[in-house]
Amino acid sequence: MNKESKTVVHVVQHLAPGGIESLALDFVSFGSIDHEVYIVSLQGTKQQALAKWPRLKAFANHLVFLNKPDAFNLKTISDLSALFRELGVDVVHTHHIGPLLYAGLAAKQCGIKAKLHTEHDVWHLNSFKHRQLQRALLMWVQPMVVADALKVEKRLEELFAHSKLTTIHNGIDTLRFVEGQKKVSREALNLPKDKTLIGTAGRLESVKGHDLLIQAIIELPQQYQLAIAGDGSQFKALKTLTDSLGLEERVFFLGRLENMPMFYQSLDLFCLPSRHEGFPLTAIEAQSCGTPTLVTDVGASAETLCPDSGLLVEANCSQKLAQAIKGFKPSSTSPREHVVKKHDIRDVVSRYQQLANMGA
């Protein structure tokens, strides 16, 4: 390989559909032409990941899986060191505390100067054990630390004395997530054409608060219907809740969709009723498609909103959700312009590459 180019490795805990993992894939897609970018997943195998997430197939040659056991595994550090040397890695970029532990120490062992660590949320730092571990790792590895939200940066500053700290909000491909025709999108997804359609997307897990949104729908007039994109362990429980409330004909479970822009384009309002969040990409994706967005006031969700059209609602309250949805009035301003200006992935990747060059 021409060593005028740089080899960059992003290390994640596991490659499954999610915001952190989607961002890592975008670094492969939108990285500089003189950067060779790989993603290392500490856990799982390539075969398992490809089966669960078809999007990965396009990146298969840039993916490495270590299949690390759940428990602490010292061998993983030596495996990563060997991999970094084999690839001639110039930049190691870790995402979350597990990758910081293993890949941070391996990068230090290999003498790699350019080390970046992105903190995507800070809920795990409520744990004393995690705080102590992260403090020790930051002191030893000395990475440039990036917060993906101002709220995250503030918390990191409170907890750790670390001078190499900056904030870079996450981004999405604004040329993929574009405005479209609502009628056409609803026809393609077999959704009602003449109803007020609320939508949400994400893993069907308790933390995402789908149950709260379903309970909000029962408090709204029949005109309001709900489309849910995604799958997860709570599907049966959410379907049971829907049936018990008599909402079988008003709530649509669409499963995991490949064409998410079409889903967002079909909606009158996108809602993210989460109980906990980091910096949710779905809120940015929806707004990039021109869809007004409501989020609950958790994590850094508020930082994703267009100031003209976005709605911020108290978390863990279906009544407040229902009130906000019923009182929503479309803005004359599309939220897309805000997203293009603030959250285009090309700008995000460029800022990270500048940081990496500074650390080299």
Automatic annotation (TrEMBL):
| Keywords associated with the record | Transferase
Classification via InterPro entries: Glyco_trans_1, Glyco_trans_4-like_N
The Glycosyl transferase family domain covers 183-328
The chain positions of domain Glycosyltransferase subfamily 4-like N-terminal read: 18-174
Q: Name one GO biological process term.
A: carbohydrate derivative metabolic process
Question: By its UniProt entry, which Pfam families does this protein fall under?
Answer: Glyco_transf_4 (PF13439), Glycos_transf_1 (PF00534)
What are the protein's GO molecular function terms? glycosyltransferase activity
Q: Which PANTHER family match?
A: BLL3361 PROTEIN (PTHR12526:SF634), GLYCOSYLTRANSFERASE (PTHR12526)
Name recorded for this polypeptide: Glycosyl transferase
